[in-house]
Amino acid sequence: MSIRLLPPTLVNRIAAGEVVERPASAVKELVENALDAGAKRIDVVLAEGGQSLISVSDDGVGMDPDELALAVERHATSKLPDDDLVRIRFLGFRGEALPSIGSVARLTLTSRKRGAESAWSLTVAGGEKGAAQPAAHPPGTRVEVRDLFFATPARLKFLKAPRTETTHAIEVIERLAMAHPEISFSLSDGARRSLDLPARTGDNARLGRLAQVVGREFEANALALDAERDGIRLTGWAGLPTYNRATAAQQYLFVNGRPVRDRLVIGAVRGAYQDVLARDRHPVVALFLELDPDQVDVNVHPAKAEVRFRDSGLVRGLIVGAIRHALAAAGHRASSTLTGDALGALGRSPLPAATPYRPSSSWSPPPRPSAAALSAGRAAQAPFGNGGFPGLAESIPGLSLPPSAPSGEAGLPPAEAPSAAQPDYPLGAARAQLHDTYIVAETASGLVIVDQHAAHERLVFERMKQALADGGVARQGLLLPEVVELGEAAAARLVERAEELAALGLALEPFGPGAVVVREVPALLGEASDIAGLVRDLADELAEWGATTALSERLLDICATLACHGSVRAGRRLSLPEMNALLRQMEATPLSGQCNHGRPTHVVLGLSDIEKLFGRR
User: Fold this and answer.
1) What is the 3-state secondary structure (H, E, C) of 279-338?
2) Which GO terms describe its molecular function (predicted)?
């Protein structure tokens, strides 16, 4: 078999297979060309999902007849003025998009250069180029692609339904629009607009554009990022942990204005949210990296969807550090969407059927109970217990549990009257405990409902991380060592890691076949910890991680497991001072808006929201 050169039309079709995967791929290339041409408005029209028509119009610099003829030749571009493939400053630079599209479709270019008296048009059909002809068109360029893949019919069977293809095109335009808020974008089918993003200006233009695309909720639940290290600058917004999604689809990365997908960045984002988000949930982020073009290679993928950083470790560290710093600065803040979810749940709750009142002539009021009976009944159903969990109030500087107050009239505990001098705490003052699980606090503008287990779990976790950073976790010996039966394999895994676990405050030894004895536990866990459950969970996690994974690599996971078993449980009665101590420590602890698994620790209900529930406004 002899070696031969392929005909140009076939070469272009092969290139089209790499560049034009579906209509959205063509839309991406054409819109990027419009952006490189300095357009301030870009309008896209799709018919049948782009299969029968793709039209992209812009008000950019335009082209003259000679430039039109060159634009449809392979490897002809205006975007490499110095022939330097290292310092690339444009979105498109390969010079393959237009000839590749023209080889598999009917392509028509109509353009008028700024300041020119007339426009010109040129057609390419199946790779056959026509001559430039005079045309009528305002300054700018319009590219029409008709009958996509008519020259390669085998590709048509891989296209999805028109609505699906339109959705992919919308995603492409939205990503480009996020990076260029000063430009207006629209997408229609010729009659109805599916996307309309007017240009935005001002200091918050980029956040406003993100809100247009991702949703208004993102604007209210996003933390601003601005960090720089060794010439690399990171800006953007990271969503609160309690504002999350089931997939990573709403994680956006832009490198020098170019939308890309990069596994390094996805891993960095996951690492930054590691101890505040469940493993099956994903944060919403929009990250904009700006760095010298010679520090990043954008030429590693035909569609320019991936990049390669010269110093990937520096980029990863910058992203992780900036997001973690923003999350820590957010303190106890939680997603504002929780309020809407709570109100929606209240609105959907079915009310019990009312029993009609039928007065009876033999009815008489019951006798008034005595003071002693009231006191006994109240003591049996007291919402506040007298016990506490060790180390909670004492861990807050200047705060201690006051002595028990004297009983009020008829043995009832006196209500804590609000005082004008009482400070207006962000999480309010505790008023009650519901179902021995939820703390209800009153603020100046509404109510706060706190999940006591989730909140204390975060507090213990943060204190444990701090203790590790300070040199080690303090241990306390058990008065009666606890024997835990596990099975021989699980017990052997724990014994093999006994030295590493001891560094984390958990001291255990083998105790016969299939059992271990626990002699010391981290002091932060107190007496409330479920030692047997903790040991079993650690054994399961060791089995999942495997023998080759050092516990130091999973340090935060171990701390989260320890904190979960050491925190105050649902069903534990708390005194009023204990509840207030928990609230004050939440206000002083970073990341306390969610537990270690990403669940919210509290929900805020504004007074106006409550009034709406009762029809008062």
Assistant:
1) CCCEECEEEEEECCHHHEECCCCCCCCCCEECCHHHHHHHHHHHHHHHHHHCCCCCCCHH
2) ATP binding; ATP hydrolysis activity; ATP-dependent DNA damage sensor activity; mismatched DNA binding
Q: Which residues contact 107 (CB under 8 A, 6 or more apart)?
A: 72, 98, 101, 123, 124, 125, 143, 144, 145, 146
Helices in 394-451 by DSSP H: which ranges?
none
CB 31 within 8 A of CB 53: no
pTM above 0.85, yes or no: no
Mean pLDDT in runs of 10 for the chain (617 residues)? 74 64 90 92 94 94 90 74 62 73 90 91 89 92 91 79 92 94 93 91 89 88 92 93 86 90 85 82 92 80 71 91 89 65 57 47 49 44 40 40 40 41 76 89 89 86 79 80 88 87 85 89 68 84 70 66 70 85 88 82 85 76
Asked if 398 contacts 427 with a C-beta cutoff of 8 angstroms, the reply is no
Domains and CATH numbers, the chain: 8-197 (3.30.565.10), 205-329 (3.30.230.10), 331-346+383-399+423-617 (3.30.1370.100)
Tell me how many degrees the CA angle 232-236-240 measures, rounded to the nearest 5: 130
Q: And the tokens for 319? A: 């992203």
Give the separation between CA 117 and CA 113, rounded to whole angstroms.
8
Q: d(Cα 71, Cα 139) in Å, to the nearest integer?
A: 17
CA distance to 67, 69, 111, 289, 327, per residue, from 139 (Å): 15, 18, 7, 33, 47
